[in-house]
Fold these 3 entries.
Entry 1:
Amino acid sequence: MTRENEKEVQQLKNRLRELADKSFQQNMFTFTGFLGFSEQDVFWQMEPELKYAGYTLCGGSGNTDRQLIRFGSVEELGYEAPFPIVCIHIRPLAAKFADKLSHRDFLGALMNLGIERSTIGDIKVGDREAYLFCLASIADYICENLEQIKHTHVSCSITQDYEEIPEEEPQICSIQVSSVRVDAVVSKVYRKSRSECIELFRGGRVFINGRLCENNSRLLKPGDTVNARGYGKFRLQGELRETRKGKLCIEVAVYR
C-alpha cells in the first residue's frame, strides 16, 4: 500500500469513528457517503470498535454494490431516519438515434460534472438508459446539468418506481473445477492462470459477499457472490455433480 493510500485509509477510519461517536453522543443518525468494496472492508475491519453506535448499510435497493452506512439504532433512538438516497432515471431524448451506452459512459459523464464519487451509488444500465442511485443533496444538480452522454442528449428525472429498474441478467454457466477454492473458480470463470489470479488477491481486488478476501484457498459456498475488480462478479449457484475424472461440475451465474 502506498503512502497516499495509507493516508486515505486513515482519513476514512477517522471519519467513521467521528460519525459513530456523533451518533452515540448526540442521539442522532449520521451517514457516510457511498462506499465501494475497499472502503466497506475498512468498515468491517473496524466493526467491533464501532458497533456500540449501531449501524445499517443500504445502497438504495436490495442488490447494490456501493453502500451508505447509517450510524444509530432505531431501537435506541426511538425513531426511523430514511437513507438520503434517491434514484434518477436517465434516458435519451431521441431513443432512435441514441448511442449504446455502457456503465463507464454514464459514470464518466457524471464525473465530468465535477461531483465527488462518494455522492454516486450504483448505476443500473438498461437499453440506452440507466437508473442512478445518488445522494439526495446532489440529485437536483445532476438533473439540471447532465444533458449529454457521448453523442446522446439525455433527460433526467427522479423516480420512486424502483420496479422499473432493470435487473442485470446473469449468464448461467456450468464449469469444471478441481475444487470450490475461490482461486480455482475465479481462474476458470475469467480464464486466468492460477498465478494471474494470485495477483488479484495480492492486489486486494477480490471480494466475497462484499468483504475483502485475502485467503485465495477459501472454499466457496452456494450463494456466495465473488467480485473481481476489473472483471465483474459471479455467484456460485451450486455443485451439480462429480465427473468420472474427479472434477467438480459447478454452476455459476456470471455478471459481466
Entry 2:
Amino acid sequence: MKKFIIITTINKKTEAIIKFSKKLKDWNIILVGDKKSKNIKNEKNILFLSLKDQKNLGFETFNKCPYNHYTRKNLGYLYAIKNGADIIYDTDDDNLPYNNWSFPDFKIKIDLFSNKKSFINIYNLFTKEKIWPRGYPINRIKEKNKWTQTRKNIKIGVWQGLADIEPDVDSLYRLIIGKKIKFKKRNPLALDKETYCPFNSQNTLWNKEFFYYLYLPSTVSFRFTDILRGYITQKLLWLENYYLGFTNASVYQKRNEHDLMKDFYDEISVFVNVENIIKLFSIIKFKNKNNKAENIKKIYNCLYQEGFVKKEEIIRLNAWLYDIKKIESEFKN
C-alpha cells in the first residue's frame, strides 16, 4: 500500500515533520513549498517539492494556483495521486503524532449519529468542556445537541482525527475562552446523511475513492478553505453511501504563531455563510450520483452563482479535474 502524508510549510523542518518521519517510516512525506519556504533537504521518506519541482510536474493546477497560499497543497495531493497513493493523510507542520497514532479501517461497524437540525458539535461527544470546532455555526454554539444514534456497518470516506492541547477552534473561542483541551477517549463515530460537522485539513485520512474532493478552494479566506472543502465533501460522500467518521485525538498541536485578530477577520465569512451554504446544498440536484467530477463542478458552480466563491475558482477547479483525468488516463495506459 502506498501511503502519503501531505504538508505545506514555509518553515524549516519542524518538530512535527521530524516526528512523523521517524514514527511513520513506511509513509511518504511530501512537503509542499512556496515562495516564502525554506528549502528542506530530501531524505529517507521526506520529499520537499520546491516551486521548480512543482512546475516540472506538468500539472495545469500549477499555472492556476496562487503563490503564498495554503492551497498550494493541491500540488502535493496531485503528486501523491500521480505516484499511486492508496491513502492520503492530510496534516500541518505543527501537529505532532502520538506514539499510538493510527486510524480505524474505512469499512467499520460504528455508532452513526443523526440530528434533524442539520448540525452536531462533535466536540461535545469527546469532552464536557465548552468548545466547538472551527467552522461550526456560531449561532448554534449554545444549542444542546439532540441526536439519534444507531449502530451500523458502513463505509467511511474520510476520517477526522481530533487534536489535543490546541484543537481546531475558531478565533472567538481563542479570544474569549482560550483553554487548552485534552479530549476523552471513546469509540469512533460517524455522522449520518444530512447531519453536518466541519472537518479540517489538520488530521484527516482520505479514502482513495474520494481523492477528487481533496481540492482546496482558493477564492475564500485562508481560515475557510479547508472548512468549505469539508462541507462539500460531506455532501458528496452521502451520494455514494459513504460517511464522515471521527476518532480520538491522534495528534497534539504545538500551534504556530497566529494573529488572532487576523484570524477573526478571515473567519467572518465562515461565521456569516456556513448555514446559507448548507441550505444551498439541500436544494442542489445531482444527475449522476457516481460522477465525482460532475458533482463537484455542480456544487462549485452553484456556490459561484450565489456569490460564495469567485469566477477564478471555477477555472482552478477545472484545472484540478483536468489533472486528475490526465493521471487516470496515464494509469489506464
Entry 3:
Amino acid sequence: MELWYTEKQNDNLALSYRVRETLHVEQTPFQHLAVLDTIPFGRMLVLDGIVQTAVVDEFIYHEMIAHVPLNTHPAPRRVLIIGGGDGGTLREVVKHPGVEKVTQVEIDARVIEVSRQFLPELSCSFDDPKAEVVIGDGIKYVAEHRDTFDVVIIDSTDPVGPAVGLFSREFYTSLYACLREDGLFVAQTESPYFHSDLVARIQNDVGEIFGLARVYWACIPTYPGGMWSFTLGSKKYDPLDAPVERMPAYPTRYYTPAVHRACFAMPRFLEERFK
C-alpha cells in the first residue's frame, strides 16, 4: 500500500509527497506537529498541515535566510532568531566568527525537542556556547528589548496561527526599535508567485519603516512553486553593496558571493510587482 501526504496550498492546488513512514505525530499546546519520512525529500517537519522543512533541501532555505543578512551587516555580534525551532538557521548563524551571541526565541518547546530527536542535521547547534534558547512569544520578546541586536532573523511558519502577528506592520515597527542604530532584519515572506500581494505589502511596510527594503529569492523544491521570497529591512546597509567577496570562510552548499548578488535580481513579472 502506498502512503501519500498532501498539503493543500489553496482551493485549486495541492502538493503530495510519498511517505515511507510516519515517525511522529502530536498536538502541542500551539499546533499540530508531525515528522514524516518521505521518499523524495527524506525526513520532513510538518506543522498544522504545512511542510516546514525537509532534510534533502533545507540547506537552501537556512543558508539564504542567515548568510544574506549576516554578510550585509559589517559586524554582526548579537543576533536574534524568532522561530526556527528546527535549528537550521541557528546552525548557519553560529558559523560566523564575528557573532558573539545568538538568542533564539521559539514559542513551542516541542518543536525543538522533536527536532533534536528526528532532525539532528538541523538541530545540532542548540548546545553551541554562542546560543541562548528562550521558550516564549517572539513578538513580546522583541517589544521588550530595545536597541539590542545587530541582526534579527524571522524564521517563522506561514502567516496562520501563532505566526500571524509576525507579518504585521506593528511588528516591523517593533523590530525597528529592537535593532541597534545600524541594524537590519530579514524574514521569510512566502511564495512570490502565489502570495505576491503579501510580499508587496510587506516590502512597502518595511520600506516605509526602515527606509530600505529588499526582496530576494531562492529555489527551494519542497515549497509550493519552488520559488521562495525573503524580505530584508535595513536602517543603514544595503545588501547590494555588501563586500561579499571578503566573506569569512565557512562551509555552504547553496550560498556563495555570486548567489548573494544574483538573488536580488527579479524576473520581469516580479520586478514589475515589487517596485
